[in-house]
């Protein structure tokens, strides 16, 4: 029997560090993510994420933002950072996408869609389930 989780499209091949404007009360260390009190997020090699969600195209100027956003939402789903950080996580995605060359209007639409439709993705009730086979 195997155990796995579905819903991923991409896998990070080199760890990535970024400073965000979310500050956990204490350092958080899980298998693929370390999040330091000072707002430094370390996403480790091997981390899997689903890329940009919704009716959109996975463009290069969306990938880094989607990586960071998915890691932050995962920390919320797992109850490791507070749900009140969701708005700032959405702002971080917008900021990163703009830095990476996304148009202002597209970044605005992405942010608006996240604010309106993405609350379920950070909810602990939607933690990815472990699937078994056969």
* Beginning-to-end CA distance, first to last residue: 6 Å
Strand order of the largest sheet: 3-6-5-4
Strand fraction: 15-25%
Tell me about the biggest sheet? 4 strands, antiparallel
At a glance:
By secondary structure, this protein is α+β, with helices and mostly antiparallel strands.
Describe this protein with a few key phrases:
134 residues, alpha+beta, globular
Protein described:
- With 134 residues, the chain is of the alpha+beta class.
- The protein has one domain.
- Helix content is 37%, strand content 17%.
- The chain contains 4 helices and 8 strands, in the order βββββββααααβ.
- It has helices at residues 60-77, 86-99, 104-117, 119-122; strands at 2-4, 10-11, 16-19, 28-29, 33-35, 40-43, 48-49, 131-133.
- A 4-stranded antiparallel beta sheet has the order 3-6-5-4, with no helix packed on it. It has a two-stranded antiparallel sheet with strand order 1-8. Strands 2-7 form a two-stranded antiparallel ribbon.
- α1 runs antiparallel to α2 (86-99) and α2 (86-99) packs antiparallel against α3.
- The chain starts with a strand and ends with a strand.
- 27% of the residues are buried.
- The model has no long low-confidence stretch (mean pLDDT 96).
């Amino acid at each position: 029997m195997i155990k796995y989780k579905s819903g991923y499209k991409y896998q990070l091949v080199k760890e990535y560090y970024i400073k965000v404007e979310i500050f956990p009360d204490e350092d958080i260390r899980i298998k693929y993510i370390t999040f330091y009190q000072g707002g430094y997020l370390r996403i480790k090699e091997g981390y899997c994420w689903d890329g940009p969600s919704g009716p959109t195209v996975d463009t290069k100027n969306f990938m880094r933002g989607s990586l960071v956003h998915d890691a932050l939402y995962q920390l919320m789903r797992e109850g490791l950072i507070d749900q009140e950080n969701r708005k700032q996580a959405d702002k971080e995605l917008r900021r990163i996408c703009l830095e990476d060359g996304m148009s202002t209007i597209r970044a605005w639409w992405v942010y608006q869609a996240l604010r309106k439709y993405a609350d379920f993705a950070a909810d602990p009730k939607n933690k990815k389930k472990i699937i078994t086979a056969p």
